[in-house]
Write a structure and sequence with these properties.
The complex is a heterodimer of chains A (157) and B (175). Helices cover 20% and strands 26% of the residues of chain A. By secondary structure, chain A is of the alpha/beta class. In chain A, the strands form 2 sheets. Chain A has a 5-stranded mixed beta sheet with strand order 1-2-5-4-3, with helices on one face. Chain A has a two-stranded parallel ribbon with strand order 6-7. The longest helix of chain A is centred in the first third of the chain and has 12 residues. Chain B has 7 helices and 4 strands; from the N terminus they run αααβαβαβαβα. In chain B, helix 3 packs antiparallel against helix 7 and helix 4 crosses helix 7. The two termini of chain B are 19 Å apart. Classes of the chains: A alpha/beta (157), B alpha/beta (175). At the A-B interface, loops of A face loops of B.
């Protein structure tokens, strides 16, 4: 699988074996095609986790993929290890393609990442805030987020 | 029987005659408050830990029914006491406000636990109100994290005293 993927995306991803998960560092542009291949050719049918990390200059989008049919103890060899895919996007243009068309679980998780980290997911069916109220200013999990106004209190009246 | 008897009442022969005939002489508001304060119908709002203590308060070991406050309502229209037992997030605030406004007057608010009193550990957060009194007129604050059932009962009895102040025992001639 490693050779197949490296051959399919020459120079666009880097695969390293891990103890628990196989790591794939991928270019953000190929994320949908990569996951499509992983899902339909290698059986990675479950997107367990989708999150983002603020790395300063860049945002790192992290995907955890599992293969439920092959996720059995006796088969848990190298080929069916869970996958951790990481894609880095620039802070100036925090956009990446949505995986909602491939994995239903991506829908709300991408909304959460948009809500708290301000990542725009292209082709998302309805990218709206999910945890914070509508009209909230800013994306609070960014490292440079500063809440300028305290939440209003009546005690000061 | 006279609620909140005054010196004049005890000396009033008309009042004493009525009393001897078992006729209650009081303002209607006082009689109502006497009943209200002994049978609050609470509407609960909470997240996780304080509501667990409310459940314990309602169960047999602590038995909130001893005080007559066991009629927990699921509808704000039937409740007269709003127990805030958790932090109010910005997203939840309009919902809580609406529930409070749907409750018929007279109504009271009890802030249960540190989150409801001040925001607790979430006070400096970007999405949590620093206390229920940021948006609601709170009558009784019950501190605790979480609040033990005994503390909740104490808070409810304080509210009872607030709604219907005890008149105490008055003996004629002794102040």
């Amino acid at each position: 699988m490693m050779n197949d993927l490296s051959g399919h995306f020459p120079g666009l991803l880097e695969i390293t074996a891990g103890d628990i998960m196989m790591q794939i560092a991928a270019e953000p542009g190929i994320i949908v095609e990569l996951c499509d291949i992983l899902k339909h050719r290698y059986g990675y049918n479950y997107l367990a986790n989708l999150t983002a990390v603020d790395q300063g200059e860049q945002f790192e989008i992290v995907y955890h993929l599992y293969s439920l049919p092959k996720n059995k103890a006796e088969l848990n060899s190298y080929g069916v290890q869970p996958l951790c895919i990481k894609a880095r996007i620039s802070r100036e243009l925090p956009e990446i393609d949505s995986l909602a068309s491939l994995f239903a679980t991506a829908d709300w998780q991408e909304r959460e990442v948009y809500d708290l980290m301000g990542i725009m997911f292209r082709n998302h069916p309805g990218l709206a805030r999910i945890l914070l109220p509508e009209g909230f200013a800013g994306h609070p999990l960014r490292k440079d987020y500063r809440s300028d106004e305290k939440v209003e209190t009546r005690q000061g009246d | 029987m006279v609620l909140e008897k005054t010196e004049a009442d005890t000396n009033d022969t008309a009042v004493r005659t009525l009393e001897s005939q078992n006729i209650i002489f009081a303002s209607l508001e006082k009689v109502w408050n006497w009943g209200r304060s002994r049978s609050f119908w609470p509407l609960g709002y909470g997240c996780n830990c304080c509501p667990i203590e409310i459940m314990a308060a309602g169960a047999a070991r602590f038995d909130i029914a001893r005080y007559g406050y066991e009629v927990f309502r699921s509808s704000p229209r039937q409740a007269d006491l709003l127990i805030i037992a958790g932090p109010i997030t910005l997203k939840m605030a309009p919902v809580v406000q609406r529930l409070y406004e749907q409750m018929p007057a007279p109504k009271w608010v009890l802030a249960m636990g540190n989150c409801a009193i001040s925001g607790g550990p979430f006070r400096d957060g970007y999405s949590v109100l620093p206390g229920a009194d940021s948006m609601l007129p709170v009558d009784v604050y019950v501190p605790g994290c979480p609040v033990r059932p005994e503390a909740l009962f104490h808070g409810l009895l304080e509210l009872k005293n607030k709604v219907s102040p005890p008149c105490g025992i008055k003996i004629p001639g002794i102040k």
